[in-house]
Amino acid sequence: MRITDKSLVEQQKISESELKHRLHLFRLTPSDLDEVRTIKSIISRQLDVIVDEFYQHQTRTPDVENLIGDAGTLKRLMSALRQYIIDLFTKEIDLDYVEHRLRIGLVHKRIGVDPKLYISAVNYLKSRLISTINNNIQDPDYARFLSDIIDRLIDFDVSYVFDTYIKSMMNEIEIEKNKSYQYVNDLESMVQERTKKLEKMTRLDPLTNLYNKRAFEEFTNKLFSEAQKNNLPISIVYIDVDKFKSFNDQHGHEEGDAVLVIVSDCIRSVSRSVDLCFRVGGDEFVVVMPSCAKSDANKNYIPRLLENLASIRTDLSLSIGVAQSGPKNYLSCQDTLARADKDMYINKAKNVQSTSDKRLKCVSGKEQNSA
C-alpha cells in the first residue's frame, strides 16, 4: 500500500493501546479531561482575545512574520488556532484527535517552521490560556489544578506534533540517503560502462572494427581449450590481401584503408555469430572458427568470402590458408596459426604462379597471331 493510501495515524502505527499508554505517560485521566471541558464556556468567551494577543506577539518575531507572509495566510492561521483551542476544551481524545495533531506537525514542518519557533509559540499559548483561567476562576487552588492539566494536555499534543516532525526528518534523511545510493550506483554503472567501452576500444582495430592482435592473444586460447574439452574441431582461417603494398603505393593510404574496410566487412558478413574475426597485421586477417573443420572452411566459408568480395571489387584478390586443431590431434593456438599462415603462403605462391601462367599464355597468343 502506498503512503498516500494511509492516514498519518496508520503511517505512524498508532493504535488505541498506544494512545492510552501515552495519556498515562502524561498523567492525563478521564476525570482530568472532564475537568477541562467544564471551563469551555470561559475559554469560548475569551477566544478572540486569546487568538489576537497570540498573533500580535508572534508577528513581533521577524522569522515568524516572514513565514506567515501575508494577510490572507494570517487570517487562515487565526481561524485554525481558534479551532485548535475549541477542540482542546471540547473534543474527545481518540485516534481522530491524534490524526489532527499529527497533521498540525506535518503542516508546520512543510512550511518550514523551526522547532524552536513552534515550541516558543506553544509556550506563549499556554501562558495565555493559564492567564485566562487564573483571571476567571476565583479559587486559586482549582485554577492551579486546571492550569496543570492544560499544561500536560498541550505537552501531550506537542508530543504527537514532534512525532511528525521527527518522522518527516527521518523520511528526508532516508530520501537523501537513497539519492546518495542511487548517485553512487549510477556513478558505478557509468564507470563500468566507460570501462567496458575502453576495454572494447583496446581490443578493437579502429579502422576495421574487427578485434585486434591483442584480443586474439586474449580470446583464442580459451576457445581452443573449450574445443578440446568438448572434443570438437576448431579451425583458423588466415587471410592476406594480395599485392596490398604495391596497391597502397600506387593509390595512396586513403584508398588502401578503404580496401581494408571492404575486406573486413566481407569477412564479417560471411562469418557465423560464433566466429571471431581479427585484423592481426597491416593487410592480414584471421578468423577463428569453433566447431568447424578445415574441409568445411575450404568448401563453404572461403567461396562465400571470395564471392562476396568479387561482388564489390573485382580488382582485389585474397590469399587464404586454413589449419585445423582436433578432434584427433589438438594443436596449440599458436601452432594452428602458424600452419594456417604457412598454408596461406602456399596458396599465395599458387596464385602468383597462376597469374604468371596466364600472362605467358597471353603473350604466346599474341606472338602466334603476329606470325
Automatic annotation (TrEMBL):
One Pfam family, short name: Protoglobin
Domain of life: Bacteria
One term of GO molecular function: heme binding
Coiled coil: none
GO annotation terms (biological process): cell adhesion involved in single-species biofilm formation; negative regulation of bacterial-type flagellum-dependent cell motility
Enzyme Commission code(s) on record: 2.7.7.65
Name the record gives this protein: Diguanylate cyclase DosC
Protein source organism: Vibrio coralliilyticus
